[in-house]
Each structure stands twice: as structure tokens, then as C-alpha cells.
Amino acid sequence: MLLSDFLQFALNGLVTGCFYALTALGLSLVFGLMNIVNFAHGALFVLGGMLASVATERLGLPLWAAIPAVLAIMWGLGVVIEAGLLARMRDAHILPVTLVTIGLSVFLVNTMLMLFGTEPKNVKTGLEGAPIFLGDVIISQSRILAIGVSVVAIIATWLLISHTRAGRAMRAVFQQPEAAALAGIPIARIHSFTFALGTTLAGLAGILLGAVFVVDPSRAEPAAVKAFVVIILGGIGSLPGAVLGGLLLGLAESLWGGFVSTGYMDAVGFVLVIAILLFRPSGLLGAPASRVG
Amino acid sequence: MLNLRRLLAGLALLGATGATAVAQPQPVRIGLIEPQTGPVAFDGTSVIRGARLAAEEINKAGGVLGRPLELVIADGACRPADSVAAAERLITAEKVSVLMGAFCSGATQAVMPIAERNRLPLVTGVSSLPTLTEAGNRWFFRNAETDAMIAAAFAHGLVEQTKAKTVAFLAVNDDWGRGTVASFRGVFDKMNVTTSVSEFFDHSASDFYTPLTRLRSARPDLIIVVAETQAAATLVKQARELRIPSRIFGVGAWTTPTFLNLVGPAANGLLAGVAYTAAAPGDRNAAFVRDFRAMHNEDPGKYSASGYTTMNIIAQAIQRAGSTDAAAIQAALEQTDFTGPTGNLRFDNKHQIYGLQLYVVEIGNGRAEVRGTATLERND
């Protein structure tokens, strides 16, 4: 096996890893801060890609205009879902809330099947040009775009949570709601903000999926499963853990596929999860006592 | 209370309209088990579109036995468990006369014993695992080419046309993918054509850089790809991105407009072996393509053609049987002799179709051009 092959596999793994990280980030955020296991995350992810496909393919918008437009819609949808469904169950047990998100996922997937059909769709990037050669290693322009956008989004989310007033308020609300309310933090608004952020991150990952691969409603389930694998790997609720878990899963799948067998690439993630649960049940970066940040 | 009364009045009204409907002949119900969700949802929907056109044409011409055809569609999601549940529901609750489905070979295999137990004919237009027709299930009929038949029909011509000395395979990791690869390898081994790599990928895969990187370093003359529309479109684009110089031959629905649209110029130069292409010659096909376009606003692909011919075969059998008695329909299906857009179709003793036209097409400028034809020969 040549060195250039190894580098190509590693690069491929980093690209898919970025996807996994970005997809898992929103899921981890919503779980870590709101204690909601959002099974609709995969459907929201696909919806982002579908809307971006409509914006770029049918309405002819350029990608730089389509991304903010779709993200704004996703943000609004997040606010609506939180206000219409989740806010009513704020004090409910985790299981009924989980059931609601499963129902929401079924509803969203079938609505998309009805509106957009089963055909796989592309997001037009305007970057169909020549791929870039780094020696023998090849990367396409749309992949570079996807990595760039993912990195920016991940860093922005981290800065938002750890370095802004809004982020501090979010962490305060979910650590100690009563104390946060006494300190004058508007709790309902923070819940709404957090869920909308998670929804928007899912939508962004979906847009990038459509830009590099194709997107269709059947992607919702595998995407959600992968995102759960990633946050279990990285440590549930830990944002750096979601990023690390995503990159690790991408690399592990790619190297396993490259050097052993591509037939069972999806199994790699589950083997990793079993190993993690056996030896470090709180995940790579998850601390057993805290779920925040 | 008021609401309840209003509801009752509404129900009574409904009952009244129902009563007038009884005067019309009862429809003959055909149960379709096709994936409408999951990784092959698009191709499953294509089958349904073809079947719908056939049913509409038949009903316009007076239906079967003087009764209209009614399609009862259930989502099998390409999964054995879902398809079995769908079959049970169609048989017991919907009282269908014939089953059609269930797309994926694994799903069809799971439905076959249900059809046998309920003594109901089951016709598949898609499932290509060779062993299905070897099981001796007399209620099962297959209107599709098998993996082995595709390999036998294409392998020789392909090697002659491309002068390939080494080949590589890239296939979906299921019965169909593995079966097709095994059949091609069997023929190639006899022809002293070397197989350098065989790679398989999962149904839900969206990134193919890893297997393609392996193929790139193997440098085969010819790559044979077995994939459905969703995977095939991404895969071909990525093969071009990685600048893989080998000729690519695709097995699956590689000439559908959705595929050509998704892949764009990257599709140019692809070879595909298909059991149907809208570009196929002949008046019968031209009429089918025209009517399909009028109904669905797109060109039919392999799966739509299969849905169309399968529904016609079923309808003609019911007509020949003279009743919806399952045993009579089963016997009538054995006498099938249907000339449609895919050729003159008949079943052999194992209920495997023959007479199907196969085409080698080359894609250029977003269109499929027929480069060669072969006829599926009787082989039992």
C-alpha cells in the first residue's frame, strides 16, 4: 500500500469526519443543554439539504445567498418546534419527550417525501471545476468548501457557548434553572435559542451533504444513527467530544475501508461504540457528572 | 352532542354515496409491495409509476373481466420484515387477488413463503437473485433478468468491445451486488480476464472515496459497478473527481433521467447494461415512452418499464383465467405471452421470464445511445 493511498484515505476520513462532527454538534448541544434526545435531528439535517437544493436548483440562487436563507428558515423552524412541542413538555420525563421527537421525525420525513419526492437531489455549488492535486492526493473544490464551512461553524458555536453572555446564560439555565431565573435570565428564550441553534447546525450539515454528495429523505435515519454514534464516542453533551468523535469515526471508517474491507465500513462505528461503552462509558471527553459545554 | 349529531349525519351521507357505488362492478385488486421509503425509495416509486400507467390504460380499455383494476400499494422499504408485514396486510385486510413485489431480492424471498401459504400468485418485476426461481415455489413468477443472465449476456461483448485485460468490481453489499459480481467473475475467469479488486459498499453509503481510492491504485482496464440510482450518481461523479481513467460499465438503472441529470457531463462515456432504455428501438416502446411522458412528465427507466410490463402480464393472466380464482390465475400466468416495450415475454418452467431485450448503451451528451442488443434466452 502506497503512502499516497494512506494520505488519500486519511483525507477522505477527515472530510467525512467533518460532516459527522457538524451533524453531531447540534444533537450534542440539544442533549447536553436541554436533556432532549432529539430523534428528529436526522430529518432536520435532510430538510436543510432539501431546502438548499430547491434554493440553488429551482430558484437559481447562488450558494452564498442560499446558505443564509436556508439557515434562517431552519432557525425559524427550530423556534416553532420548541414553542409548539417541546416548551409544553419542559418538566416532562425524558421518555415522552423522546417519543415526541420520534413522531416529529416521522412527520418531517414523510412531509419531505410528499413535497420533494424520493429523487436524490444536489445542492449546486458552482464549484464543479477541476479537483485539486496535492501530489497524488486529490480533493474536490466542493469538499474544501465543506471542510471550511464546517470548521468555521464549529469554532463559531464553541465561541458562542464559552465566550458570550448568551452562552453563559445558556449554561446557567441548564445547570441550575431556578438560580438562573432568580438572576433574571429569561429561561423560555434560552430554551428557544438553544433548540433553534441545534436545528440550524443540523440544517447546515445537510446543506453541505447536498453540496458534496446527494441528499434525499432516506438519508435521515442513517445520519441520525451516525450522529448518535459520534456523541456516544465523544462523550454525551461534550461539544469538543462531538468534534473529536466525528473526526475519529470518519478516520476509522476510511482507514478500515481502505486497508481491510469496504464491505463492513458501517460496522466500524458500532464496534467503537461497544469498546467505548465497555472501557470508558462516559465517552472520550465526557465527564460523568457534567453534561454542559 | 351537536357535533356528534353532525358527524352521524355526515356518516349517513357517506353511506348513501357508498350505496350508489355498489352498482358499479367491484374492482380487481392487485397488491404492490414496493419500497417507498429507505435507500431504494426512488426506484421503488418508479416501479409504481409504470404500474399506474398500465392500470390506467387497461381500465380505459374496459378493465379485466369487465371490472376495473385497483392498485393497493404498500411500502416494503426493501426490508424483509416490512415486506412480510405488508404482504400479510394486503392478503388478509385488503383481499388482493395477486401480489406484485417486493423489489429487493431479500424482501421478495421473505414474501415468497407467505404467497405460497396463502396460495396467491406473486410476480416480481425486479428481484434478480438467481436462486429465487430455483426454490420450486409454483406461486412465484419473475419478470426480470437474473444476475447470471446479465453476466452471460454482457460479459463476452464487453471484453471484446473494451479489450479489457483486467477488471475491478464495485458493488452494493447485498444479494444483488454480490450475486452479479460472482456471475461476472465466473465468465471472466474462463476468458482469462484478471479480476484485480472487488469492493462492496453499504446501501446507506454516501461517500465512495475509500473504495474508489483502492480501485485507482489497482488501475484496472474496466470497472464494473453494480449500484442503484442514488449510489450510482454519487459514485460516478466521485470516480471522475478522482480522475480514474478506467472505462466504467454500470449495472442497474443507469439511463434514467434522474441519474443523467444528477451526474451531468461526468456521465459521458459511461457504458451501461440495461434491461430497458427509453432509447430502445421499436414502435411498441415509442408508444410506451410517449404515454409515460404524458402521465409522469419524464422518460421511463428500467424500473418503470418493469412495473408497466409486470402489471400487464398480471392483468392479461386474470383475463385469461376468466375469474379472480388464485389457482386459475396461477395457471394463466404460466401461459404468459406478452409483447411490450421490453420484448416478447414468456415464462419458462421455473417461472423465469425469457425473451427480454437487453441493451448496451453508451452515454454521451446527457443521452443514452444503444450500442448493442442481446435477447435473454430460455435457460431451464
UniProtKB/TrEMBL annotation, chain A:
Annotated transmembrane regions: 6-29, 36-55, 61-87, 94-117, 137-161, 193-215, 227-249, 256-279
Keyword Cell cycle present in the record's keywords: the answer is no
Q: Where this protein primarily resides, as one coarse class?
A: membrane
Q: Name one GO biological process term.
A: amino acid transport
Q: Name one GO cellular component term.
A: plasma membrane
Which family does the record assign?
A: Belongs to the binding-protein-dependent transport system permease family. LivHM subfamily.
Q: Any idea what this protein is called?
A: Branched-chain amino acid ABC transporter permease
Species annotation: Roseomonas indoligenes
TrEMBL record, chain B:
Q: Which Pfam family name is an example for this entry?
A: Peripla_BP_6
Using the record, list the residue span of the signal peptide; answer none if the entry has no such feature.
Answer: 1-21
Leucine-binding protein domain: which residues? 27-365
Q: Which GO terms describe its biological process?
A: amino acid transport
Among SUPFAM superfamilies, the record links this protein to: Periplasmic binding protein-like I
> What are the record keywords, sorted?
Amino-acid transport, Signal, Transport
Recorded hits in InterPro entries, A to Z, give: BCAA_transport (IPR051010), Leu-bd (IPR028081), Leu_Ile_Val-bd (IPR000709), Peripla_BP_I (IPR028082)
Q: Does the keyword Transport apply?
A: yes
The family assignment reads: Belongs to the leucine-binding protein family.
Q: Cross-referenced PANTHER family, in alphabetical order?
A: LEUCINE-SPECIFIC-BINDING PROTEIN (PTHR30483), PERIPLASMIC BINDING PROTEIN OF ABC TRANSPORTER FOR NATURAL AMINO ACIDS (PTHR30483:SF6)
* Listed name of the protein: ABC transporter substrate-binding protein
The opening ranks of the lineage are:
Bacteria, Pseudomonadati, Pseudomonadota, Alphaproteobacteria, Acetobacterales
